[in-house]
Amino acid sequence: MSLIGKEIEEFSAKAFHKGEFIDVTSEDLKGKWSVVCFYPADFSFVCPTELGDLQDQYETLQSLGVEVYSVSTDTHFTHKAWHDSSDVISKINYIMIGDPSHKISQSFDCLDEEAGLSNRGTFIIDPDGIVQTVEINADGIGRDASTLIDKVKAAQYVRKHPGEVCPAKWKEGEETLTPSLDLVGKI
Hints:
Order of helices and strands: EEEHEHEHEEEEH
Domain Thioredoxin: 2-157
EC number: 1.11.1.26
Structural class: alpha+beta
Pfam families: 1-cysPrx_C, AhpC-TSA
Subcellular location: Cytoplasm
Protein name: Alkyl hydroperoxide reductase C
């Protein structure tokens, strides 16, 4: 069952953010654009490369009005320990949510139940809490956070311009399409 076009389920969790433990709920993801990035585990191999890459894009995402949340089935305590011991993770400024109960990972349909770990899932969520994009990768395949920029821009454009759609490889400022009978078979 696809999560596209569906509202995120309610959740409440502990998180690590800028040296503090905070509470995060599903309501915090509403009212602005959000990127939620699930990953298998702290103190692992591909995960720090992805989270560091996401940090490299964080300022640009923030300039687009996007807040970033990373989520694993580790605790917020483990996130702090990883943050304190890793040069890559110590640079992270976005919120790191702990999901030891697996409820958030299950609600986003990206839990590997046998392993008890999250899959590599990336979700773009609009200000109404509606899922606009989903990407889930196998454990051994790392993601490229730079691709989120164009996806967010496209999602924001489509939201502001009902009836228009963004074609493949669309970049901000390029032409969009307005689906209509006269375009059928002409693209």
